[in-house]
Amino acid sequence: MKTLRESGILFLHYEKLLLRNPAWVLASLFQPICYLYLFAPLLKKVTGLSSAHVSAINQFTPGLLVMVSLFGVMFVGFGMIDYLREGVIERLRVTTASRVALLLGMVMRDVVTLLVQTALVIVLALPLGLTISAAGILLTVLIMVLIGLFMAPVSYALALALKSEDALGPVLNFFAQPLLLLSGVLLPLTFAPAWLQNVSAFNPIKYVVDASRAIFNGDLSNPSVWQGFGLLIVLAVLSFWWALRAMKRAAA
Q: Taking burial as the number of CB atoms within 10 A of a residue's CB, which of 65, 78, 134, 182 is the most buried?
């Protein structure tokens, strides 16, 4: 209970800092809005993408949400480097707050930001014909939370290890582009040649996109749903352990 209370206090602290300058949250939505309104309408005439039961926008929006979550959360490590440079982390370390609370407070803020962005994307997709059930929205929220719990600690761990924006940026971009392109965020990988589908089988984000599409299309009994959730839970636990270890090493 003490750790949760400390995490809540730190979450409010980080959230207040974010609310003082919310422009970057809105700016991060510019790219997905461009994809939503300037690219998604082109998919209506793609043969095999839509059917009588599933629209093209329902196929595209889940992948877009995963893309938003990755680019929105993957780069939060830059904030950690800024905190290190300004001595914020050092000041927090000398308090009685546990290392778990220090990390969890930041991750909670990132998850909340991601949920706000997710809600805005869904609302903006509704005029384009998006349909989703109440259960689908709930499961989408859960899957976005897990993505945040997975990606934010990874970004923080890398930031603590590299301690430089010049090093962190290239490393993140090196992994981000292949992960996204091999996950089928723009188009389902069923359109890809066999060799590309085989390579994508090693990409964990691919299973998350498949789970998101099944949820949006109302196919909640699809095996990809529990596979995506199960994989994200394991990755979230491992990434949090890694980030916590990196934070303890940085404090030594």
A: 65
**Burial of 210: CB neighbours in 10 Å, binned 0-12, 13-18, 19+:** buried
pTM of the complete model: 0.88
CA distances from 104 to 35, 53, 69, 73 (A): 32, 41, 18, 14
Domain membership of residue 64 (yes or no) is: yes
Residues 197-215, mean pLDDT to the nearest whole number: 91
User: Within a 13 Å sphere around the CA of 118, how many CA atoms are in the beta-carbon half?
Assistant: 25
Backbone phi and psi for residue 47, each to the nearest 5 degrees, phi listed first:
-65, 130
Any domain includes 11: yes
Whether 48 is covered by a domain: the verdict is: no
Q: Identify the domain containing residue 164 by its residue range.
A: 2-43+53-251
One-character DSSP codes across 178-230: HHHHTTTSSS-GGGS-HHHHHHHTT-HHHHHHHHHHHHHTT-TT-HHHHHHHH
Q: Are 205 and 76 in contact (CB under 8 A)?
A: no
Lowest mean pLDDT among 22-31, 59-68, 155-164, 219-228: 22-31
Tokens for 70, please give them. 């990755």
Closest CA to 181 of 197, 158, 194: 197
Per DSSP, 55 falls in state: -
Would residue 37 count as lying in a domain? yes
The neighbour count for residue 43, using CB atoms within 10 Å, is 16
In the chain, the number of structural domains is 1
**First-to-last CA distance in the chain?**
26
